[in-house]
Amino acid sequence: MNDWSPVAKVYDPLKAGSIDGTDVEPHDRAVWRAMVARYKPNKAVVGDPLLTLFVARLNPQTTEEKLNEVFSNYGDIRRLRLVRDIVTGFSKGYAFVEYKEERSVVRARRDANKLVVDQSELFVDFEQERTLKGWVPRRLGGGQGGKKESGQLRFGGKDRPFRKPINLPVTMNQEWGGGSRECERGEREERYRDGSLSRERETDWGSRGRRDDRDRGRKRGVEREYHRERRDRSYERESTRERESMRERDDRRERDDRRLRDDKYRHRDRR
Predict the structure, then answer these.
(1) Residue 77 backbone class (left: φ over 0; alpha: ψ -120 to 50; beta: rest)
(2) 3-class secondary structure for the chain?
(3) Strands across the sheet with 123-126, in order?
(4) Whole-model pTM above 0.85?
(5) How far is it between the farthest Cα atoms of the chain?
(6) Alpha-carbon distance 153 to 126, whole Å?
(7) Residue 178: CB partners within 8 Å, gap ≥ 6?
(8) For residues 185 and 163, is the Cβ–Cβ distance under 8 A?
(9) How far apart are CA 127 and CA 131, in angstroms?
(10) What are the tens digits of pLDDT across the range 117-173?
(11) Which residues sit opposite 97 in a β-bridge?
(12) Which residue among 14, 29, 79, 263 has the highest number of C-beta atoms inside a 10 angstrom radius?
């Protein structure tokens, strides 16, 4: 765990599918697919991967000219490729930008990320297909993107890094400042174990928690009794309505029978 990093150095589909990289079993089918996939980078792709940026979340209306205009502000561009559908020719929403100098790549990655172009917030990062060992694209179950709603949430990238595992040593040198809260929590737990920190505050919180639980229980009991009374009253009203409707129906039938008998006798007397 001493070589832990919030950003993946080697792509592992099982770790990428885990929020802190500690899962031992895949939590969705996509991770299984990525684990059994044998993916090789496209040899037809040209250019230096260390000087290439990946630009995603583009507006479908954004063109190569617009991208060239935006990213040329950070340095000289050697090659720009907007990925389009081979059949329809529509943009797929991502592109690759290759610069001539390394400082231009670093500057564009830092400043162009979350830049709004054509009402869309861009995501900019280094190319990973040819630079990250073991990389598997999202179409095969890998990648480091996805949304929670899609059930294919991935971690280990710039946009969604790993969380620090709970069992990580506190004395480790941090490579990234995102785990400060977890470090503080780990220090508090160690102080509790050693007995150097008083437990009076914990006891107070525990007793207060028990009081809150009792109060919530009482409130639930009162609410439950209130709803039960309302339900009983509604049942009584419904039963009263049913009895009244049955009485009215019987009275209506009796009046109809009496009318039929009177008509019958009146017709017979006329004869």
Answers:
(1) beta
(2) CCCCCCCCCECCHHHHCCCCCCCCCCCCHHHHHHHHCCCCCCCCCCCCHHHEEEEECCCCCCCHHHHHHHHHHHCCEEEEEEEECCCCCCEEEEEEEEECCHHHHHHHHHHCCCCEECCEECEEEECCCCCCECCCCHHHCCCCCCCCCCCCCCCCCCCCCCCCCCCCCCCCCCCCHHHHHHHHHHHHHHHHHHCCCCCHHHHHHHHHHHHHHHHHHHHHHHHHHHHHHHHHHHHHHHHHHHHHHHHHHHHHHHHHHHHHHHHHHHHHHHC
(3) 77-84, 91-99, 52-56, 123-126
(4) no
(5) 121
(6) 20
(7) 6, 161, 163, 164
(8) no
(9) 7
(10) 999 999 999 999 999 999 999 889 999 888 778 778 899 999 899 998 887 555 544
(11) 53, 80
(12) 14
What tens digit of pLDDT does each residue of 181-191 get? 444 555 555 55
11 and 160 Cβ atoms separated by less than 8 Å: no
Tokens of 129: 């297909």
d(CA 174, CA 165): 13
Q: Give which of 129, 183, 179, 127 is closest to 158, Cα–Cα.
A: 127
Residue found under tokens 């009496």? 258
In sequence order, what are the beta bridge partners of 124?
A: 55
Token pair belonging to 158: 């710039």
Paired tokens of 236: 């009584």
In angstroms, rounded to a whole number, what is the distance separating the alpha carbons of residues 105 and 4? Answer: 26
- Amino acid identity of residue 157, one-letter, is G
pLDDT tens-digit readout, 240-250: 777 777 778 88
Both tokens assigned to 134: 């073991």
